[in-house]
Automatic annotation (TrEMBL), chains A, B, C, D:
Native species: Hyphomonas chukchiensis
Compositionally biased intervals (Basic and acidic residues): 465-476
Chain sites annotated for binding Mg(2+): S296, D358, D359
Protein's UniProt name: Amidophosphoribosyltransferase
E.C. number(s) listed in UniProt: 2.4.2.14
Superkingdom per UniProt: Bacteria
SUPFAM superfamilies, per database record: N-terminal nucleophile aminohydrolases (Ntn hydrolases), PRTase-like
Boundaries of every Glutamine amidotransferase type-2 domain copy: 15-233
Cofactor: Mg(2+)
Record CDD domains: GPATase_N, PRTases_typeI
Family: In the C-terminal section; belongs to the purine/pyrimidine phosphoribosyltransferase family.
Location of the active site: C15 (nucleophile)
Keyword Transferase: yes
Length: 483, 483, 483, 483
C-alpha cells in the first residue's frame, strides 16, 4: 500500500463523505464519488451499503482506487450506499477508526460517516462511559451512534435529532438505515455537503466534483442546520435547530476543495485565480517570473501572472510518486534544498527574480525548503506570496493544522518571517482581499460570512473540550486490537 | 496460515482459557499455557496483558505457535495476562470475535475471556440493545461486558457479581483489570478451571496440562459457583451464588481434556483406559486386533486390548499436516475410502478381524468412512466400539455437536446403525459403565455427578434461548466489518 | 500496492537506470535517484549493491517510495549500487522480470540493468538456448548476461565488449562487478545516460534530474557507442564500436524526460515551451483559452499561450490518486465523458472556444474522451493541438506504443481524425518545427540528428527480430513460476 | 503459514516426489500424493503440469494442504504433473530453491524434481560456471538441468542419460517434458521410487502411501539404475548404467518412510514392530511400562511390549500444533524438562520403572530433554532404548543429520552416553538385529544389502565434493533475490 503523504505544511481536513439512494449500482457510484473526493483524505476509505437485509461493508487503509475495484456489485450490493475518505487528525492509523461505522440498534441497523470534529466529544464520551457505554473506536462519530442508541425517543429520526442537538462542532454527516439516506450539516454549515440527482436517485457529497464524476446533476447545498432525509418517497428537509447565520469554513476556498468544484455557486478555480489578482494588487513585486508551488498554488499564480503581466513558469516540478515509508533526504546528510516531492526547474529559475506563489503558509517548514531550493537553482531574488492571510489561530473543527505555538505567522513578526524564510520579500493576501476574491465585497465583522478564525480569531462556536487536558488522548478506548 | 480442521464428527468445545498474575513474563507463560490448551480450540487465539497503564492485546486467527513467538515481552509487556483459544461454534471465522475482549469502563479497563455458552445470551442481548447498548461482536462474552458496564453498583467486584447473577449457562471465565485477575466458574461447574502457583504468581487454566508446561504447581480447582480474585495481596474466594451440587461436563473425560490432564483428581488417560476395560467387558467380540481411531481413541483401545487380551495395532495412521483449504478427495471422484487425515495400515488390517475403538460417535460420517477404509484395506470383519454411550441429545452450553436431527444415535435404531455403518457389530459403553470408569460406582440419578445430558437428556440448567427461533442468527450484530 | 496506470494513450519507455560508485550510502542515493526517475517506469524497481563480498539485492513490484525506505544502509550495504525502474513492454508483471539481474560468473559476480530493447534479442536467445543456455527471465538483459558468461575472452571487460558487439538495438546500461561500475550506451545513443559526480563518487543516470535530487554535479553525457568504466582509480572511457553519428530518441524531448532535466544541454521544459510557440505559429486558431492536457501538455500549452496571446487556463484537473484495480466508469454505463484521471473544470471551459494542447496523440482513445469531456463541460469549440508530429510508425527500441495498425495518425486521414475526434480543428507540430523547437535549425535528412522514425519512418538501425513471427512471445522461457 | 519444526534430533531427508501421466486431473492427484508424502518434507512444495502447450507451475513455502486447495484444475491444468515436498538441507528457506524446476531447452520444456543429494554437484557446478552456465538456484537439481541443456546429443533421452552418467550420489527423480514422464533412480537405488497405476494413468511416487491415497495400484519399484519413460504409448525401461547391486538407504525402514508404506515388499510398520521385538531380546530391562517417544517410536515400543510382556503406555503426549516462530521455553528460564512438542503423562510415569523407546538417537539433545521430563514426572527408573544402532557416521546423500562431531554416539563411549543422558540403562539395536528385523537373516558384509554407512561407515559410493572446503557454501549463486 502506498500511503500518500500529505504536504507537511498544509492544513488537513478530516474527510470526504458520499451517499447515494435509489440506484442498483450504489457502491460503484460511491467508489467513483469517493475517488473524486480523494484529495480530502488519503489514509483510509470505506463504503457501507444496504442490500435489503444486511449492511455489507468494506473499510481499508489506503486509496479508494486501491481497494474498490472489480466486483463491487457482488461485494457491496444494494440500492443505497454511504462512503468516507479519511485523514487522521491524530494518532497512528488504525483499521478500527475507519468509517462508516455501523451499529445494530433496537430499531434496526444504522451506518454513519462524518466529516468534521465535535468540540464537545470528550465531554459526551465521558458521560456515556459513565452510563455504561462501551466504545470501540476513538472516533467522534461513535459518540453520535451512542447518543442515537440511548435516546429515549421512540422514532429513529427523533433519536437522531436528539443526538445532533447534544453535539457541538462542525460536521457534515451521511447516515444510512434500512429505509433512509440522511444528510446533516451543523448549525453554521462549517463543513460542506451538497445534494445531487442521478436519474431518480439522490446523491450527497462533500463537493460537486463527486457529482460530476458520476454524471449527477447538482441540486443544491444542504443548508446549515438542515437535515435531509431521502427515502423511496423522495427527499424531505428537517430543521432541528434554531435558525442561525451560516458560516462555512473559508479554507474550502483557500485549500480544501478541488479547483473544479463549485462552492456556494462559486468556482473554486476562479476564486483562487482572483486571489492571485488580489494578491498581485496588494503585494506587488518587480520580478521576471511567477512560479507556483504546485499543485495547489497554480490557480493563484496564474491569477498573479495575469494581473501583474509577469510571465508564469513551472519553476518547480512536483513528483507525485511518493510513498510514506520512503527514505528521508536527511538520511544522507542533505537537508533543505532537496525534496521528495518538489524539484527545481533550473531553466525557469536560473538568474531570475522569482515570485513564488503558495496557497498558504502554516508552519513555514516547507516554505523554507522551497525557497532554499529555488535559490540553489540560481534564482537571483525570491519573493514569497501567500494567497491567504497569515494563519495565527488553530482550528478545532476537524482541521489538523498544528498548535498555535507551531503556527509560523503566530509566533513571528513580519521581519522575523522574512529573515527565517530567507526571502527578498514576503506578502500575504489580506482578509478583506480574501473576502473580495470570494465575491463578498466586505466582511461582516459582526457576523462574518465565513468561519475565518484561523486568520481572525473569531471562533464561530464555543469550544467545550478545548479547556481539557490533552494528556489522556492516548488512553485505550476500545475493545479492539490496534493491529 | 494453516487452520486445523477439527474432526468433522467430534463434539467441539468452545475454548481454552488461561490467566496469570504476578510474573514479569506473564505473556510468555500465557503463550505456553495456551499452546498446551491448543486441543481445545485451534481457530483463533489471543492474549491481553496489563502493563501498569494500558492493556496491550494481540488476537489472531490460527495457532498460538504461529503468532506468539519472538519478542513477546516487548509486544505484550506486563505482570498479568489472560489468554484464550477459540473454536467457533457458528458462522465463519471473524477477527472481531476473537477473545479476550476489552472495554474501557468508567472505573478503568476490563478484559475478559471465557469458555462456554450462555443459555440466555440472546435474551439479555436483546434487552441490552433495547437499552441502547452497541455490540461489536456476536460473542456471548460481550454480554457480560455490557452487564458490568451498566451495573448500578459502584464497586467493580459488585458489578461483576451483578453481571454473573444475570447470566445462565456453563462458563469458566478469566478477567483482568488493572488490579485483579479474576476466575469464575458457573454455579454447577460445567466448564473446567484450575488454580496453579508458579513461585509467587497465581495461574488459572482450563486444564492442568497448562500448569505442567510452565512448571506451575496445581493448587486446586475453582469450585462450581466460585469466583477467585487474585491481587497483590493474594487470592480471595467469593461465593455469589446459593450452594448447588456440582455437575461438570462429562465430555471432558470422554473427549475434550488432554490425556495428561488431571480432572477432579483423576488422570484423563487412566479414565479413558478404564473406559476401554469397561467397554471390553460390556461389548466383547472375537477378533485379531484392536485398532484405535487415532489420536483420541488410543487410550480406550489400549484398555480394550489389555482387558480382552487381543493385540493392539496401529491399523490407522493419522496425517497431522492438514490444511483447511485443501482439496477434497471427492473432487477427484473418490469418496469414502480415502481421507486426508486417516490412512489404513494394510499390514495390520489385511485378513484380520478388527475391533475399531473410537471415543464417541456423533454424526456417524467419519465412522462410516473409516469403516469402509478399513474394509477396503482387507479387514475380514469390522467391529466398531464407542468408548462412550450413544449421543442422543444436543448440548447448549458451548459444545458444538450438531442438532438432534443430525445425531446418529438419536435418529437410528441399533440395527439401522449397524447397517448404515456396514459393521459386523457395534457396541457403546453404557452410562453406568462410563461412571464406573470415571471412578463413580453409581450414577446418582436424582442429582447426577456430571452433566451427561447428551447421553441421558438430563439438562442441568434451564435453557432460555432455546425456545427462540434461530433464524436471525445471521443478522449483523456489529459495527465492524466481517473481513 | 498501488500500481500507477500509465496513460493509456502515451508512448511508454522501458526504464530508468542509475548507478553510483564510491559512496558508503550508495543504496540511499540509488533510491533517491530512482525516485527522481520514477516517471520512466512505475511498475517495478530494484537495487543491487556490492558490499565487498556479496551483491545484496532487492527487487519489488511498485514504486521506489513504497519499498526503499527505512534501514537501507543495513538492507543494501556497500559503496557501489545500480538500480532500475521498469515499465513492462509486454505481458503481465512478473517478479522474475525485475532488474537488476545478477549472475555469479566464473570471474565473480556481475549485476546489470538496462533501458532499451535489443532488436536481435530473440535471434541471440534462440542461438544461446540451442547452445545449452538456460534462461530464467524473458528480459533482453539476460541475453547480455549469457553472452558475457560464454565469451571466450579471459578478461571481464573484453567479455563485455564481446557481448555488446553482438547485440543490436537501443540501450543504456549500467553494470556492477566487485571492482567496477560500468555504463554503456548503444552505438547511436538512442537511450540516454549521463555522468555525474558527488564528491569523489561517480554517478550514472538516465536523466540529470536524478543527479539534481542527490546534489550531484553533471559531468557530461555518456556518448553514443561509449563505455565508461568507473573504479577506485577513476573513470575510463572505452570505445568498442566504429564511430557513428549519434541519433538519440526524439521522444525524450517530446514526452519521456522530466521537464526539469537537461538533455544534450537543452532544458526539456524550454524545448517543450518552444514546441508550444512553434505550434501556435504553425496551427493557429481563434479561441478564448488554451487548456493543457495535464501534466505532460502543460509546458507546450504555456508556450502556445505566450505565442498566441490567448489566456492559459487549467480547464482539466488531473487526479493523481489512481489505483490499477479500480473500477472502470464503463462498469456503470458511462463512457467517454468521465475519467478516473481527468476532470473538466467547467468554470474554465463553459461557453469558451478552447484550444486543447497535448504532447502527442498515439491511439487517439484518450484524446477522444477528453474532447468529449471538454464539450460536455460546455466548451463552444474544441481545437486540438499535438505538440509533436503525427505518429505513423511503431518503435522497436523499447518504446511500447502500439502496433502500426493501432496508431491513430497512421490509419486515418486528417479529415477522418477531425471527424473521429469530433474537434473543430486539429493541428500537429511539423517535423521541421519540432527540430527547430529542439534547437536544430534544420533536420539533416541524410543523417537525422535524432531517431525520429515514429514520425518519419527513418529507422536508425536494422531490425533483426522484426521479421519474425510474434506468436511465440508467450512461450514460457524460465524455470521460475510466474507467480 | 505454519512451518512444522522437524524434530531437532532426527535425521531429515530432503524430499518426496510424485509424478502422474495420463489423467485429466493430474494436479489434483499430485496434490493428494504429495499430502501423503508430507512427512518427507514440510518446508516447501511445488507442482508443475503440462497442459499441451505450457508448463503451469506453483511453488510455495509450507504445507501442501495450505496451498493446493480450490480450483486446481484451473490453476494447474493438464494430463501430466510432477510434484515435490522439500526439507531444506542447508541455509534459510528460499522460494527460488523450491522444486520442480523448469527450463525451456532447445527441444522444448523440461521440468524436474528430485529427492537426494549429488556427491559431485559442486565439482560439476564449478565446471559448468566456467563454461558459461548461469545458475539461478543453489539446488543440485539445477546441475542436472544444465547438463541436459548442454549435452551434445540430439535426442532428449540421450541427453538425460548423458547427464545422469555424469552425476554421482543418491537420487530419485521425476521429470516431465511435453511428451514424457520420466522416473530415474540412482545406480544403487539409495532413494526410493515406486510405480503405480491408476486406471490407464501411470504414477510415480517416493512411497506406496502416495499410491494408496489416490487409489492407485502398486506395480513395482523403479529398480536401482533404472529409468522409466512413460508416454502415450505406455511405459518403457532404460538401463543406462552397468548393473550393480542395489543398496537402498536403511533409514527408510528406521525413520523416513510412513508406517503404512510398503518398501521392497515389506510393511514398514511390521519391520519397526520387529525392531521392537529384536530390541527387547537384545537389550532387556526390568520395568513396569514401555513408553514410546511419539510418534515415530510407537511401532517399536509396541513390539518391545509384545516381546517383553511389559505393558505399553502413552507416557508422553505429543502436541502437533507447533509453529516454527513460537517462543522457546528457554526464554522463560525453564530448560530441559519442558517442551513444545512433548508432555509427560504423569499417570503413566509416576513411580514407574520406564523403558523409553525411540527410533534413533542422533545428537542426543532431545533424548536428554525427554529423559529429564520423564524423571521429573516421577519415573523411578528410565531405560532408554534406540530401535536402531548407534549413528556414528554422517550421510552425504541427502540426509541432513549433523556433522560427525555432533553425532552423539560418535563422540561418546557407552558409559559417557549413559551419564550424559542420565538414564539407568541405554540400549541400541545391533546392526545384525536391524537386518534381521528387516527380513534379511544376515548382513552381506562384502556387499551390504542396504546403505547403512551411518551405522557402519561403509559408504556405497565415492564422495567427490566431500574433500572440498565448505566455506564458500554461502556464496551467492543466483541471479535471484533471496527474498
Amino acid at each position: 500500500m502506498i500511503l500518500f503523504d500529505h504536504d507537511d505544511d498544509k492544513p488537513r481536513e478530516e474527510c470526504g463523505v458520499f451517499g447515494i439512494y435509489g440506484n442498483p449500482e450504489a457502491s460503484l457510484y460511491a467508489a467513483l464519488g469517493l475517488h473524486a473526493l480523494q484529495h480530502r483524505g488519503q489514509e483510509a476509505c470505506g463504503i457501507t451499503t444496504y442490500d435489503g437485509k444486511r449492511f455489507p461493508s468494506e473499510r481499508h487503509m489506503g486509496l479508494v482506487g486501491e481497494h474498490f475495484g472489480g466486483d463491487l456489485r457482488t461485494r457491496l450490493p444494494g440500492y443505497a450506499a454511504i462512503g468516507h475518505n479519511r485523514y487522521s487528525t491524530q494518532g497512528r492509523p488504525m483499521l478500527r477508526n475507519i468509517q462508516p461505522i455501523f451499529a445494530d440498534l433496537s430499531f434496526g441497523g444504522f451506518a454513519v460517516a462524518h466529516n468534521g470534529n465535535l468540540t464537545n466529544a470528550r465531554e459526551l464520551r465521558h458521560q456515556l462511559v459513565r452510563d455504561g457505554a462501551i466504545f470501540q473506536s476513538t472516533m467522534d462519530t461513535e459518540v453520535i451512534l451512542h447518543l442515537v442508541a440511548r435516546s429515549p425517543k421512540p422514532r429513529f429520526m427523533d433519536r437522531l435529532v436528539d443526538a445532533l442537538q447534544q453535539i457541538e462542532g462542525g460536521y457534515a454527516l451521511v447516515g444510512l438505515t434500512g429505509k433512509k439516506l440522511i444528510g446533516a450539516r451543523d448549525p453554521i454549515g462549517l463543513r460542506p455537503l451538497v445534494i445531487g440527482k442521478l436519474g431518480t436517485a439522490y446523491v450527497l457529497a462533500s463537493e460537486t466534483c463527486a457529482l460530476d464524476i458520476i454524471g449527477a446533476q447538482f441540486v443544491r447545498e444542504v443548508e446549515n442546520g438542515e437535515m435531509v432525509v431521502i427515502t423511496d418517497e423522495g427527499i424531505e428537509s428537517i430543521r432541528a435547530f434554531p435558525p442561525r447565520a451560516s458560516s462555512p469554513c473559508i479554507f474550502e476556498y483557500v485549500y480544501f476543495a478541488r479547483p473544479d468544484s463549485i462552492v456556494q455557486g462559486r468556482s473554486i478555480y476562479e476564486v483562487r485565480r482572483r486571489m492571485g489578482h488580489q494578491l498581485a494588487a496588494e503585494t506587488p513585486a518587480d520580478a521576471d517570473v511567477i512560479v507556483p508551488v504546485p499543485d495547489s498554488g497554480v490557480p493563484a499564480a496564474l491569477g498573479f501572472s495575469e494581473a501583474s503581466g509577469i510571465p508564469f513558469g513551472m519553476g518547480i516540478i512536483r513528483n507525485h510518486y511518493v510513498g510514506r515509508t520512503f527514505i528521508q533526504p536527511t538520511q544522507i546528510g542533505r537537508q533543505a534544498a532537496i525534496s521528495k516531492k518538489h524539484s527545481p526547474n533550473r531553466a525557469v529559475l536560473e538568474g531570475k527574480r522569482v515570485i513564488l506563489v503558495d496557497d498558504s503558509i502554516v508552519r513555514g517548514n516547507t516554505s523554507k525548503k522551497i525557497v532554499q531550493m529555488v535559490r540553489e537553482a540560481g534564482a537571483k531574488e525570491v519573493h514569497l506570496r501567500s494567497a491567504s492571510p497569515p494563519i495565527v489561530n488553530p482550528d478545532f473543527y476537524g482541521i489538523d493544522m498544528a498548535a498555535k505555538s507551531e503556527l509560523f505567522a503566530a509566533i513571528h513578526t513580519h521581519e522575523e518571517m522574512v529573515a527565517e524564510l530567507k526571502v527578498d520579500s514576503l506578502g500575504f493576501l489580506s482578509v478583506p482581499g480574501l473576502y473580495k476574491a470570494i465575491g463578498e465585497p466586505v466582511r461582516n465583522n459582526m457576523q462574518p460570512q465565513f468561519a475565518d478564525h484561523c486568520f481572525t480569531g473569531d471562533y464561530p462556536t464555543p469550544l467545550v473540550d478545548h479547556q481539557h487536558d490533552e494528556s489522556d488522548k492516548e488512553r485505550q478506548l476500545s475493545l479492539l486490537d490496534d493491529t
